[in-house]
Write a structure and sequence with these properties.
Blueprint lengths: L1 E6 L2 H9 L8 E4 L8 E4 L14 H7 L4 E4 L2 H18 L3 E5 L2 E5 L10 H19 L3 E6 L2 H8 L7 E3 L2 H8 L12 H9 L5 H6 L2 H8 L2 H9 L17 E13 L2 H21 L2 E12 L4 E12 L2 H15 L5 E13 L6 H5 L2 H17 L7 H10 L9 H5 L6 H15 L21 E2 L5
Parallel strand pairs: 2-4, 7-8
Antiparallel strand pairs: 1-6, 1-7, 2-3, 5-6, 9-12, 9-13, 10-11, 10-12
The protein binds magnesium ion.
The site of magnesium ion has 4 residues, from strand 1.
Amino acid sequence: MILLVDMDAFFASVEQQLHPHLRGRAVIVCGDKDRRGVVTAASYEARPFGVRAGMPMREARRLCPHAEYVEGNPRKYVEKSLELLEIFLTVTPDVEPFSVDEAFLDLSRLGARGDTYEAATHVARGLQQRIAEEHGLGASIGIGPNKLIAKMASGVEKPRGLTVMDEERFRGVFWPQPVQALWGVGEKSAAAFARLGITTVGDLARAPEPLLEQHFGVVGPHLQQAAWGRDRTPVVPYHEGVDPKSMGHEVTLPEDSRDAAFLEGTLLRLADQVARRLRGDGFAARTLTLKLRDFRFRTITRQRALPVAVDDHVSIFEVARALWREHWKGEPVRLIGVSASALEKKGEGEQIELFARDERRSALQEALDQVRDRLGEASVVPAGSLAYRRALGHVPFGAAQRTDADAPGKGDARVQRRATRDRLAGRSGYDDGAERSAPDPTQLKPRLDKRRPAP
Ligand SMILES: [Mg+2]
C-alpha cells in the first residue's frame, strides 16, 4: 500500500502557523519584495477569489486586493519539510520525499499494520493528527496500490482530505475526466491526444495501443497503462535516491584533529567549494554526503536526501554539519569531505520558481564566485569560516600553507604526503567506497565524479 502525503497550501500554511495574525486570512506568498512575478502559494482563504499558484501577481492583486502578501522564505519551508520527514520516518523507512511538500510512503513492509486499505487508512489518520498537533498544518493523503493512484487520489479531496482508491475506483473517478487529469499528461500531450480524438482518461485507456505507440513512442503505451491505474514505479527511499553523478571536495587535514570548531570550519569551507562548483556547472543537488576518516583510517560516509535541490553553501553546510554532529563520536579526524549528488540541472524542478527568486542572495553569490574565479579560492571565504579563523588564528588546510596550498602543486609537502596516503588507503580497501579520494587537499578544478557502486 502506498501513501502520498501532500501538504495543504504548504507555504501559505507555514506562514500562517508562524504568524498568528495571518490565520484565517487570505495569504498570498510571492517570490520577491516588489511583488512582481507570480504567486508562489495561496492560502485556502484566498482560493475562492480565484487566486492560484503560478498566476501573475498583478492578476492576484486585482482578484484579491485585501490579501496579505508575504515574501516567501524557502529556507523555512525546507526546514519544516525536513521536520515532517522525521514524522514519516517513524512510520516506515521507505519514504520518498517527492517535493518540498509531498512524500510517498511505502507501507508494504509493515504487513498487517499497513498493507491493507484499512490499516493504511489508520496510519494516514495518525499522520494527519500528528502533523496537525505538532505543526499546526493540514495534509491531504491519497492511498492506493501504487504511486500513481496514491498521487492522484491525494488531489481528490482537499484540504485535510483522505482518499482511498483501488484500480476500480480510480477508473470510476478518472475515466470521465479530461486526459490532462492523468499524472504525467501536460498541456502539450493533451493537445496531441485531442488530435487523435482522445479527450478523456477513459478514451486513452481504450485507444488502440499501436496508434499510441506510433504517435508517442514508448510513452504512449505507458500512459495508457496509467489510464488503467497501473504503475510499477517503486518508491525510492530517501536514503537510496542517489544519482550516479556527484561533485565532492575532501581534505586530508595537516594533522589529525578533534577540535570541533576547526573541523566545522573546514566543513564550511568544503561546503562552499561544493556549492560553487554546483553553481558553476548549473546544477543543484538533492542528496548530500559527509565523509569522515578517523586516525585509524576507518572511513564512514553518511548521506541525507533533501526535499529540494540546493546549490548554496549555507544549505549544504547546514546539512553537512547536522550529519557531522550526528555521527562524529569525538575521535581524531584525519580526512573530511562533503559531496553533492542526485544532481538536477537548474530550472528543472517545479519549485525552482520560488527558490530561484532569492535574487539578492544569488546576485551576491554570483559576485563572490566571480571574484574567486579571478583571484583564487583564498580571496573570499564564507563569513563563518573567517570568524572561526580569527578565533583560532588559522585556517583549514594549515595557516602557513594556505596561499601555497591553494595553488595547485605547491602545497605543503607534509599535507601532500598525508593526502597521498589517503588516496592509497582509498584504493586498498580502507575506504568504504562512496567517493574517490581527492588527489590534492584543495581541489580547485571542478570535477564530475562517476560514483562507484557500493561493494
Ligand atoms: Mg501541496
